[in-house]
Design goal:
The structure holds two protein chains of two kinds. Chain A has a single domain, classed as ABC transporter involved in vitamin B12 uptake, BtuC (Orthogonal Bundle). In chain A, a hairpin with a 2-residue loop joins strand 2 and strand 3. Chain A is globular and about 60 Å long. Chain A has 15 helices and four strands. Chain B is mostly helical. Chain B has a domain of about 200 residues. In chain B, the strands form two sheets. A two-stranded antiparallel ribbon of chain B has the order 1-4. In chain B, strands 2-3 form a two-stranded antiparallel sheet. In chain B, helix 1 packs across helix 6 and helix 2 packs parallel to helix 4. Chain B is globular and about 60 Å long. The chains are: A mainly alpha, B mainly alpha. At the A-B interface, helix 6, helix 10, helix 11, helix 12 and helix 14 of A face helix 4, helix 9 and helix 11 of B. Chain A: It comes from Aquicoccus porphyridii. Chain A: Its main location: membrane. Chain A: GO terms for molecular function: branched-chain amino acid transmembrane transporter activity.
């Protein structure tokens, strides 16, 4: 929020995403750093950055659906899985280029999400969370029980590498640029969506759906749209995931992964795109630390074996979710904004 | 024909087991307006407590079962004190998310403390099935069904007829209104979690009796979810009917439809029923008609 006394004088300036010169500078520096990252840091970090960017696409989608439109979604990993499977089936069977498979993956996930979003037109609150959990289970069931020539069953599908004009996107660095391009487009799109009339409708429905309906917003359609957009992002992220890992299996898209994405937006802050990115960064770092430290601990406490990483991840992330809900329900971005404004108006309390 | 009837009876009894686990959901919801996604984790913690008191500490069943129930109640109380007391009056979203956080937190803790090893579970109910003519009925499910029905009738009476039960019902309606009427919201929620944990432990005993115990058994929590919704989240008596219907539907699908299509449709039938319920009649069979529609 702007400080008092500073207010936009035109609609255009009100809608601006980048408001000050410092923000331009920060954005340019950030993008330049990211673009140069492959020359600056080692391959391990690039691999982590790849995961972060893919998670960012998915978490931003969840942020639009849950953070902006207020629709609880515990099936984001299933939507991601639909996208990943669509992309890998299209790529491995028809040989379509990734320029087509990624949007198509997004669309098929969006369709799947829209179907479950339609239920949001009738129910809300945790009842809605239940239907998204049902989406999660139905996705698993469909993959495992449909004929294995369709979706690979429990064997999964191997994905051919992404290719453009004879250029193959293999290896972490090449994929880094592919992920970077898609993530940049998707995040920029998210900023556009949330400041458009759709985004404002989402916020209105989240804050009070009865009031939103009285103001002329089609509440049911808005809720379904929120799921559609959120699932589209998840589908695109899933397609990127498929090209990165080059293999999709149903175990990569469980309820636990959905909860991890929810943890990201809770930590970052609900209702903020930047918050989603911050949350992705923090949660991925935590996961990386556990994945690195876990095996060392496992050596000394041998009876746990390889499960310690999964167990540790669950304990830490479950604890993080519960702690944030109790202590800082609005997330880190909210805290950051409070700090910013108290710095600005210092030494006055408000 | 005998097999058909046998399938129906077994299905109904499994359904009653789901009802018992679902009763944990309903009791917690009925007294605190919190929907506990971590119910399956409570079942598995109950299972490990029973395992610990019998197999590890070597107590006899008559001693270990009451001790396990008390311990389970303490665990429920601790969870409530640590996580939920602070959220009284908060939004539905916070409550849902905290129990979702609990779901993965408890799952991880169980894994860290007990590890992924498969453990034998004590035989609490006789292993020998009951033979009725050509039919064969597992003893643990039969006894479990009886326990479920007794528990349902008792709790239903408690929540609908007694003074303290009705107080808790008021808490489920609205935290703020209830506390301004002089009802202790904290006490009600604490009681609900203790009761929920105890019911889950009884469920674990019936479910696991004589089988093996791993952390994967918590999946029964999600299997019981559709039963709770089908009955309507506020109805304890309705759970019996809902459990029987879903159990029979699942058993018949598993035994007759799955061989035809060559898949495990049986495991997903409850969710299909749940989706249909949510779309057609979100309050379930006997729930209060308070769901806000837009």
């Amino acid at each position: 929020m702007d400080p008092s006394g500073i207010f936009p004088t035109s609609y255009r300036s009100d809608r601006r995403i980048i408001r000050t010169r410092w923000q331009v500078l920060a954005l340019v520096l950030f993008m330049a750093l990211l673009l140069l990252a492959p020359y600056l840091v080692s391959g391990r970090i690039i691999a982590i950055l790849n995961m972060m960017m893919i998670s960012a696409v998915i978490a931003v989608g969840l942020q639009i659906c849950t953070g902006y439109a207020g629709q609880i979604n515990l099936g984001q990993a299933a939507f991601m899985g639909v996208g990943a499977y669509t992309a890998s089936i299209l790529a491995s069977k028809t040989g379509l280029t990734f320029l087509l498979t990624i949007p198509l993956a997004g669309l098929s996930a969006a369709l799947f999400g829209f179907l479950f979003g339609l239920t949001a037109a009738r129910i809300k609150g945790f009842y809605l969370a239940l239907t998204t959990i049902a989406a999660q289970f139905l996705f698993h069931f469909a993959v495992l029980n449909l004929p294995s020539t369709w979706m690979g069953g429990s064997n999964g599908i191997t994905v051919p590498p992404a290719e453009l004009f004879g250029l193959r996107f293999v290896g972490e660095t090449a994929q880094f640029y592919m992920n970077f391009a898609v993530t940049a487009i998707m995040v920029a799109g998210a900023f556009g969506i949330v400041r458009s009339r759709f985004g404002r409708a989402f916020v209105a429905v989240r804050d009070d759906d009865v009031a939103a309906g009285i103001m002329g917003i089609n509440v049911a359609a808005t809720k379904a749209n929120a799921f559609l957009i959120g699932a589209f992002y998840a589908g695109v992220g899933g397609a990127l995931w498929a090209y990165l890992i080059r293999f999709v299996g149903v175990d990569q898209f469980t309820l636990f992964h959905s909860i991890f994405f929810v943890a990201m937006i809770i930590v970052g802050g609900m209702g903020s795109i930047v918050g989603a990115l911050v949350g992705v960064f923090i949660i991925r770092i935590i996961q990386e630390i556990i994945a690195t430290v876990g095996p060392n601990i496992a050596d000394s406490v041998s009876f746990l074996g390889g499960d310690i990483v999964f167990a540790g991840m669950n304990v830490v992330l479950g604890g993080v979710i519960a702690l944030f809900m109790i202590l800082e329900p609005k997330g880190l971005m909210h805290r950051w904004n409070i700090m910013k404004s108290s710095y600005r108006i210092w030494p006055f309390p408000y | 024909m005998v097999y058909f009837i046998n399938d129906i009876i077994t299905g109904a009894l499994i359904g009653l087991l789901y009802s018992l686990v679902a009763m944990g959901f309903v009791v917690i919801y009925r007294a605190s307006k919190v929907f506990n996604f971590a119910q399956g984790e409570l079942v598995i913690i109950g299972g490990f407590i029973v395992w610990f008191t019998t197999m590890q500490a070597g107590l006899s069943l008559w001693l270990s079962i009451p001790i396990s129930l008390v311990l389970a109640g303490l665990v429920g109380y601790a969870i409530e004190r640590i996580f939920l007391t602070k959220l009284i009056g908060e939004s539905v979203f916070s409550m849902v998310m905290v129990t979702v956080g609990l779901l993965i937190l408890l799952r991880g803790l169980v894994l860290l403390v007990f590890g992924p090893a498969v453990r034998p579970f004590p035989i609490i109910f006789p292993l020998k099935p009951l033979f009725l003519g050509d039919m064969l009925i597992p003893m643990n499910l039969l006894m479990g069904g009886i326990i479920t029905i007794v528990a349902a009738v008792g709790l239903s009476w408690f929540f609908n007829r007694t003074r303290s039960g009705l107080r808790m019902t008021a808490v489920a309606e609205d935290h703020v209104v209830a506390s301004s009427m002089g009802i202790s919201v904290k006490g009600s929620i604490a009681f609900a979690w203790v009761l929920g944990a105890i019911l889950s432990t009884i469920g674990a005993m019936i479910f696991l009796s004589g089988k093996s115990l791993t952390f994967l058994a918590s999946d029964i929590g999600f299997a019981a979810l559709p039963v709770a919704l089908f009955a309507g989240l506020e109805s304890i008596g309705g759970l019996i009917l809902a459990g029987i219907i879903i159990g029979i539907a699942q058993s018949l699908t598993t035994n007759y439809l799955d061989p035809l299509i060559g898949g495990s449709l049986g495991s997903v039938v409850p969710y299909i029923i749940m989706l249909a319920i949510l779309l057609i009649r979100p309050t379930g069979l006997f729930g209060w008609r308070t769901i806000e529609r837009v």
